[in-house]
Write a structure and sequence with these properties.
5 domains; mainly alpha; 634 residues
């Protein structure tokens, strides 16, 4: 056995164990070995990351296809270079700077000159454009929506058969891409692909596809995949179509000269060596994957539109058998095949008179019917039922009901009879409708009226009365609602006014209470100031303080001395020094105490403003010392 075969067997074993949720190794040991390599790995993972919440823009969020957005500054730089190259290619195709000159009417020439001057001013600057920023997710979404709306408007105002109009469109698209401050997402690529395909500019659509497939790292949506497949069908490029189909399946062969190219559509990728981790195992179980080049590649999910596109593409490029395989795959996955798609496949089979392919189509249809997918058949039109009937006759089936003949294929006879029964009912229903239309047309052409006019008139009158009553009821409801709404607004306004008045009254009460407290404090302070000592008691208290008989803090002695000096000044009517001078005098004349309180820093008494309505209040310790001195003197 070759080494390559052994390696494939080992990979198959690892994948099987991962699908059975059986760990093949101890993941803790691997993580411990990874941590020993250094902390720079964690810095590479967590450093310079942009905080954002991935949210789909322009499409319904799909859990199978979460959008891939830039998460680092390096990603933004790469997207800037990618969009700059795309805009440069559009400018080359527009020929706005060519020597051929600007053609068209005066308005188009004026717009061309204006956009040309704007692009030249952008190129003449020192900053590289575009310059993308990712600061706020809402801002990014707003910028993207504005860019997408601008691109849609530009493309819708373009005439496909006018070269000057197309050149002006490309120049405007390039300018909008260069001045955008937010990186474009997949919706921008989808808009460009859809509009270029509508204008039948396949070369421009190919430029967008090449930029997306070979330069970007964005994850395609289902609309992107469908647009790319439709483009290659319109271009009649079987090589490009098959390449995209292989990418969707993850089976594209990577060329040796392009080792960095991906074999898939960049939906998701996990290396086989990482299957020891439970998160990777859960991812492998949740996605449809394929093993290629040492990794598990997620296949592109397909919906009804993509499957119908693949059926038509397979019929056009790969033949009838490929289209039948796609039809079988669609029915197996409970997807609905469009009527025109299935009609095209059956019509080609009948034209080629291919008996074997016809049996395959009948087998697919009977299987779908037997499995309960009856709405996929009975909902089709008369044309499809006619083609199915022709296909059955061509392949030797007896289309009469309750036939006892053997079937050419090994399938349920009851299922075929049931299918024929419902087809007959649908055919009868269509026939009745056709006869009714023909009868009505004939009666009108002959001037006959076979309907009952009296009954019709009564019915019409009753309907009019009912409509009138309903209108009156609706108008009454509207009027009552308007009245109730006005009353509700008036009640809210009155309630707001009442609440504001109650708040003002509460504030006024608090102000009055505060003012009464201030007045009480002011009267108390004036009482302390107005109390005067007799001259004999004042001299005795002054000598007591100087001799140190009463032990008190120096700051208290100073404050008491200041109060006594104020008393002497009021009695003797002599000039009085300010508080700071008196404090200094007291400090110089008083003896130094040897207690620990004398070592403290003395706080000077603030100046008192005489004659002020609110005199500067003394500190509470000073007032207490003053009261003690008065009690001792008395």
């Amino acid at each position: 056995m070759r080494v390559k075969d052994k390696r494939r067997q080992e990979w198959d074993r690892v994948i099987a164990e991962a699908r059975e949720d059986v760990p093949t190794n101890d993941p803790v040991g691997c993580m411990e070995k990874l941590k020993k390599t250094g902390s720079h790995l964690e810095q590479l993972q967590t450093g310079d990351r942009i905080e954002y919440k991935p949210l789909a823009v322009g499409e319904i969020p799909n859990p199978d296809l979460q959008l891939r957005e830039p998460v680092k500054g390096l990603h933004l730089e790469r997207m800037q270079a990618m969009i700059a190259r795309l805009a440069y290619k559009f400018l080359l195709e527009s020929k706005i700077f060519s020597e051929e000159g600007i053609q068209g009417n005066d308005q188009m020439q004026e717009q061309m000159l204006e956009i040309k001057s704007r692009i030249q001013s952008l190129m003449g600057g020192f900053s590289d454009l575009p310059s993308f920023q990712w600061t706020d997710l809402q801002d990014v979404q707003y910028q993207r929506e504005a860019l997408n709306q601008s691109l849609c408007t530009i493309c819708r105002n373009t005439t496909s058969n006018n070269a000057s109009s197309v050149s002006l469109m490309l120049a405007k698209i390039s300018y909008n891409l260069l001045v955008s401050t937010s990186p474009p997402g997949m919706e921008t690529y989808n808009i460009l692909l859809a509009e270029f395909s509508r204008l039948e500019k396949l070369n421009l659509a190919q430029i967008v596809i090449n930029s997306f497939m070979h330069e970007s790292k964005l994850k395609p949506t289902r609309i992107t995949t469908q647009l790319i497949l439709d483009h290659y069908q319109a271009k009649r490029d079987p090589k490009g179509y098959r390449s995209i189909v292989k990418r969707m399946r993850g089976t594209r062969r990577v060329p040796p000269n392009e080792p960095k190219s991906s074999p898939d559509m960049r939906i998701g990728k996990r290396y086989v060596k990482d299957l020891v981790h439970p998160a990777v195992q859960r991812w492998a179980m949740a996605h449809d994957t394929i093993h290629r080049y040492g990794a598990l590649h997620a296949k592109a999910p397909r919906d009804d539109a993509i499957l119908n596109t693949q059926i038509i593409g397979g019929l056009k490029f790969n033949g009838l058998q490929a289209a039948i395989r796609e039809v079988r795959s669609a029915f197996r996955k409970n997807h609905q095949v469009r009527e025109d798609t299935l009609c095209a496949v059956i019509r080609v089979c009948i034209d080629q008179a291919s008996f074997s392919d016809g049996l395959k189509i009948i087998r697919v249809i009977i299987n779908a019917w037997d499995e309960g997918l009856r709405d996929l058949i009975t909902g089709y039109s008369h044309e499809l039922r006619r083609l199915i009937h022709q296909l059955l006759v061509m392949c030797g089936f007896d289309t009469s009901l309750k036939s006892e003949k053997d079937l050419p294929i090994k399938r349920s006879w009851d299922a075929l009879q049931d299918l024929l029964h419902f087809m007959r009912i649908e055919s009868l229903s269509d026939a009745v409708d056709r006869y009714a239309v023909l009868t009505s047309t004939l009666s009108h052409s002959l001037g006959l009226d076979i309907s009952d006019k009296a009954e019709e008139y009564k019915l019409q009158q009753s309907l009019e009365v009912k409509k009138r009553s309903n209108i009156d009821l609706a108008m009454k409801i509207v009027e009552d609602f308007a009245t109730e709404e006005q009353l509700r607004l008036d009640d809210q306004r009155k309630l707001g006014i009442a609440s504001r008045w109650s708040r003002l009254q509460a504030l006024e009460g608090r102000m009055k209470l505060r003012w009464s407290e201030i007045q009480a404090l002011e009267s108390e302070l004036r009482l302390f100031r107005s109390s005067r000592l007799t001259s004999q008691k004042s001299i005795l208290s002054w000598n007591t303080v100087k001799s140190g008989r009463i032990t008190m803090a120096p700051n208290k002695a100073d404050e008491v001395a200041v109060a006594q000096a104020d008393t002497y000044a009021s009695k003797d009517q002599t000039p009085v020094a300010n508080v700071r001078e008196v404090s200094i005098t007291v400090k110089e004349s008083s003896p130094k105490l040897t207690t620990s309180t004398s070592l403290r820093r003395r706080t000077p008494v603030p100046a008192k403003l005489f004659g002020a309505p609110f005199p500067v209040s003394l500190p509470l310790p000073t007032m207490r010392g003053k009261i003690e001195l008065e009690a001792f003197a008395s």
